[in-house]
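Quick one:
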Amino acid sequence: MNASTDSPQMSSAARARHVPVVLREAVRYLAPRDGGIYIDGTFGAGGYSAAILGSADARVIAIDRDTSAIAEGGALTDASDGRLTLVEGRFAALANIVSALGITAADGVVLDLGVSSMQLDTPERGFSFRHDGPLDMRMGSDGPSAAAVVAAASERDLADIIFTLGEERHSRAVARAIVATRRERPIVTTGALAEIVSRVVRGRPGDIHPATRTFQALRLFVNEELHELDAGLAAAERILKPGGRLVVVSFHSLEDRIVKMFLAARSGSGGGSRHLPEQTQEAATFRVLTRRPITPAVAEVTENPRARAAKLRAAERTNAPARSTPAAPLASFARMRGRVARGLPSLAEALRGDRS
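Output:
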């Protein structure tokens, strides 16, 4: 069935603030059916949850680590006739979350990765260099902020984080500029950090903002998003029943690479990587449904420019038992970037600032 957000509806405010990307394609691959149980691991403004509920007489368990997203989802919950359950938490723990609700298996899992438009457009959240605000970047309400990492991490760790997670080739210069500035004054606002980066990363007309990659790197690092994705994919493998569908929408190459590697390893379709240990062939736990990633149509990108980088990958669960090992250990993944021989620091290590 085609995706619809007409029943039940998102609030008009939420719809205006965040437009779900490749929504119809995601719901088509998820293929909701009456009586099914589906997990929306990244609730946000509720776009995917609303579309699933509008496509079938199904139940949705929606998860988000952002307290404000859960609070604003009340209207959709009320309109769902008991078919929507909202849970504040991380999608890495989705298998445990649904098990605690008495659910042993799900028919589908959808993950819409990255930061939402509501988070980007709220200066107080500190995600965007376009709006001056506190240098926060936390998707949830706990843990250290980006300002704490910028204040404490060693120059080398900052350079490694920005290079690996932001794919910023000027990462060493950016790290030097951050350390030099923080010796004189704390860096506590998005505007201050963007100005520091702009002094050493020179862009040409038409290029992305000079601070784009640095902000991306810090956001990914502070929220441990790649670890979250790695664990979330494994959790989906454990909770999906045979024939259940996994749909993942990513917005930059690092996320998409992890999803691609996971599905290749779990489907037996990948040739492996020279960076990772050779593994014994095991029974495939997924059948890949998208030979190439699905990308937004031109019309969607024209209407919503933030959709331009989206890539959707989908797979169907087989009846093979879930595996106990990760598809692509993140330490090895970091080393694949070519320069970070020792791997990225953990969040705790970066805050100690003692890795020189």
